[in-house]
Amino acid sequence: MAPPLPIHAALESFATDVETKFSANAPGQPEDQLRAPMESLLKAAGVVISRVVVAKGESALQGRLGRPDYATLVNGALTGYVELKAPGKGADPNAFKGRDRDQWKRFKAIPNLLYSDGNEFGLFRDGQAVGQVVRLGGDISKDGPKAIGVDADKQVQNLLTEFFSWEPIVPKTPSQLAGVLAPLCRFLRDQVRDSLDDGASPLVQLAVSVPHVLQGPRQAAGRQPGEKGQSGPAIDQEQCESGRAFGRETSNSCQPGGRHG
What we know:
tt1808, chain A, 2 domains, seven-stranded mixed β-sheet, 8 helices, 41% helix
C-alpha cells in the first residue's frame, strides 16, 4: 500500500474538525461549520505545494445572492473564489435548485471557482467544469476521517493544486477582451441591482444624494431631505434620473405614475 500523501493529514484534520462542529450541541448554519476547517485545509494544501494560501472571507448580506464565501489569495495574488454549501448538497452546481441555482447563474462569470460541501469538491472556470467532481466517499459531518476513501487525498490534492495554479488569460484581440469582460460586467450589474434593492445600502444612499452633492441641497415639495415614506427615501425626478444612471430606479416613485414630490 502506497504511503499517504502529505495532504492526507490535513484532510483528516479537516474531517475531524467538521465532525466535531456538527456534533456540538448548539445551533448553527451548516455552511458556517465548514468555514474554519476549510480555511485550515486550503492553507495546509498550499504548504504542500510550497505556496502561501490565504482564504479571505466575504461578508454575508441578508436576502442577497451575494458573493462567494472566500476570495483566495496565492502568494499575495487573488487567484480564485470558494463557495461552501451544506454537507449533502454536493459540489456540482448544475444539480442545484432554488436559490442555489440562481446563485450559480451569477457565479458562472467567475473565472476560477471552487465549490465544496465538505464531502465533495468541484472546480469551475467561466461556468465550465474542470475535470470531475472529487468525492471523499462518505459524510465527514457524521463519520469524520472515516469518510475519507481510498485515493481521495490524491484527488483532492490534484484539484486544489489546479485551483491554486490558475493564471489569468491576457486577451490579444478586441473580441477576446469583450468575451472576458462581458460576463464580469453582468456579474457586477447583478451586484449593483442587489444593492439598489436594499434601501439601506450605501449605493442607494449615493444614488439619492448625487444631485444634492453636485448641485446643492434641493428639497422635494413638502418633505425634508431623507424623509421616508412607504416607498423608502423621498426622492425627486432628478434623483430618479441619478438612480437610472446606476442601472435602475431606486424606488417605485420613479415608475410612471409614481410620486416625484
